Amino acid sequence: MAHEHAEVASPDHVHEHPTWKEYKWVAFILTVITVLEVWAYYVPSLVNSKLFVPLLLIMSATKFAIVVMFYMHLKYDHRLFRALFTGPLTIAIVTLISLLFLFAKFSTAP
Amino acid sequence: MAATAVESHAHGHHYTSTGLDNRKVAIWAFIGSECMLFASLISTYLIYKGRSIVGPLPHEAWTDPTTGMVMKPILNIPVTSMSTFVLLMSSLAMVMALAAVEMRGRPLPPDAGRGYRLFHRSSKFWLLMTCLMGAIFLGFQAFEFTSFVHEGLTIRRNLFGSTFFTLTGFHGAHVTAGVIWLGTLLAIDIRRGLQPKDALLVDIAALYWHFVDVVWIAIFTLIYLIR
């Protein structure tokens, strides 16, 4: 039963969604990453290190990508959907970083 | 092509010249625009982070110079971690609901028992679970907002309060809309039963729900965990 696939027909092609087993593994991995994030928050040596923020951002980005690829099926879906999502997302991220630079969040000046 | 369009319209589909259903194209375009909305709210929070003149503050204690009263860090990480877990699990329930609708009517595997029917084929069960978990998340948020107000943090108190309540409030409003949307799908499922031909309706709601989940993934890290 774990090998049961959901095949979705569209006018020009048929594609497969992840299996039950894959969905459960995805949920498990998301839970583990969340536990690691919260654990990192309570380790003072890690919080005070320069690795803390990049580590959390990497873990968060991984969770984000996993949900989008597997739960939102973007990995399996038409490339137009991928473009409709990643295009605005890229603009949003670039805008966010630009605004942080503009308002001197990353500035070393006093 | 016109004949194809008429034929597909007669079957309730709305395929475009790309061969894709225009409702699905629309939801992805909507999600793209929502990315920019939440990026603007998160940017505002991050720009004003650490610039509050008065407390309470998210990660640091603050002493009121006029009264000498000490205000402890206001964010409650254990409670928010639990609500984050609930929202993540609601996404699992949502994909199970969609898969159950898509698989309806197909022959069961030979070893399928009662548990299989309940857990892998009941879209009602999974839609109900998703709604419930969404409602639990909202309950956590209501608890958090209430406790913050009791501790002296309101939307007008400082820059942290303004940006925090605006960002998480917008997200909470999206979750509320999602719960109502899923509730209507559940009502349809109970009334007439969602069939594989209705899978797109569930798929569109699922995409919205997962988007609400990924936004929370970003908020949880950027607002709650990064000091």
- Mean of residue pLDDT of chain B? 87
**Fraction in beta strands of chain B:** under 5%
In total, the number of domains of chain B comes to: 1
**How is the main sheet of chain B built?**
2 strands, antiparallel
The shape of chain A, in one word, is flat
Largest interface, C-beta closer than 8 angstroms, per-chain residues:
A-B, 51 and 59 residues
Query: What is the helical fraction of chain A, as a range of percent?
Result: 55-70%
How far is the first residue's CA from the last residue's CA of chain A? 62 Å
Kindly state the number of beta strands of chain A: 2
Could you estimate the helical fraction of the residues of chain B in percent? Answer: over 70%
Tell me what portion of residues of chain A adopts beta-strand conformation. Answer: 5-15%
Mean pLDDT of chain A: 82
Give the helix/strand class of chain B.
mainly alpha
Instruction: Give the helix tally of chain A.
Output: 4
The strands making up the biggest β-sheet of chain A line up spatially as 1-2
